[in-house]
Amino acid sequence: MDWHAARAALEWQIEAGADEAMLDAPLNRYDLAQPAPAASPAPSAPDQRPPVPMRPAAPDPGEQLAAAVAEARRLAGSATDLPSLAAAMGAYGHCELKLGARNTVFSDGDPAARVMIIGEAPGREEDIRGKPFVGAAGQLLDRMLDAIGLDRSAGGADRAVYITNVLPWRPPGNRTPDASEIAMMLPFLERHVELAAPDLVVLMGNTPCQAVLGRAGITRIRGTWIEALSRPVLPMFHPAYLLRQPLAKREAWADLLSLRARLDGAD
Questions:
Q1: With contact defined as beta carbons under 8 Å apart, do 43 and 161 qualify?
Q2: Most buried by CB count within 10 Å: which residue of 11, 27, 168, 244?
Q3: 195 domain-assigned
Q4: pLDDT-derived band of residue 37, with 50, 70 and 90 as boundaries?
Q5: For the chain, first and last CA: distance in Å?
Q6: Is 31 contained in some domain?
Q7: Cα–Cα distance between 145 and 153 in angstroms, integer?
Q8: Burial label, 45 (beta-carbon count in 10 A; 0-12, 13-18, 19+)
Q9: What is the DSSP string of 189-246?
Q10: HSE (CB half, 13 Å, CA atoms) of 228?
Q11: Beta partners for 236?
Q12: How many folded domains does the chain comprise?
């Protein structure tokens, strides 16, 4: 076979698919190839990179709240009179509501009054003026008190009233205070009642009841005298609720008469 004939035969085989040279012995291509032995890794140079700093663990919210409450108790307990309590409250930095408030709303009325009224928190008008209950709800409260012979601007313990709130700073959008905010400010409220030493306390609305009594449900507990803060306490509807629900003014009037009877020494 000459060169040209051999080339033609090879091209014919390639076109037919025989494109590999055959071995002297049969080859089973389904046998698994034996893995080659792994080469020993070459010794590496020591890592010269600086160690990555560990990220500190996130603070525990429960521990943070406990520390904030402990600080509030320390500051409140160190106050010996109402002005020093107001200063301690103003210096307290753990409640973030303070950051968005214009004023620290401490109190209004006569601290020597026999009746102390505790509301929820300042609203827009209260935040601007720095006094509790001065908006529409405060105007209704003044008329309610006047109906039983009480007046926040009056002198004398028998006719005067003393007013404060659970929180001294306005929550954004007048939202309801949350449990952590109430817990932080409760030591100041308790000390406030101790220093003012009223004969009777009126809790207006669910938030004061939750703070002082540990329970809400004002429609169920209103009008019922309860012992708390070492004195008789009367839950009542908040005047803002009465503005929304005028029919509840009948129950509010009954509660006012009960307050007047207690002041007069009747059961």
A1: no
A2: 168
A3: yes
A4: low
A5: 136
A6: no
A7: 11
A8: exposed
A9: HHHHHHHH--SEEEEESHHHHHHHHS---HHHHTT--EEETTEEEEEE--HHHHHH-G
A10: 20
A11: 204
A12: 1
Tell me: the pLDDT tens digits for 136-176? 999 999 999 999 999 999 988 899 999 999 999 999 999 99
Cα–Cα distance for residue pair 7/264, rounded to 1 Å: 130
Question: Encoding tokens for residue 5?
Answer: 């004939």
Find, among 69, 99, 97, the residue nearest to 188 by Cα: 69
Which CATH number goes with the domain that contains 121? Answer: 3.40.470.10
Q: Which residue has the tokens 């004002």?
A: 218
For 266, the token pair is: 């009747």
Between CA 19 and CA 61 the distance in angstroms is: 74
CA distances to 6, 115, 160, 180 from 191, in Å = 114, 16, 21, 18
- Angle 190-194-199 from CA coordinates, rounded to 5°: 110
Token representation of residue 145: 């008190």
| DSSP string for 67-91 | HHHHHHHHHHHH--SHHHHHHHHHH
Residue 180, CA distances (Å) to 62, 69, 95, 183 in order: 10, 9, 9, 5
Residue 19 has pLDDT above 60, yes or no: no
Distance, in Å, from the CA atom of 160 to the CA atom of 178, rounded to the nearest integer, reads 31
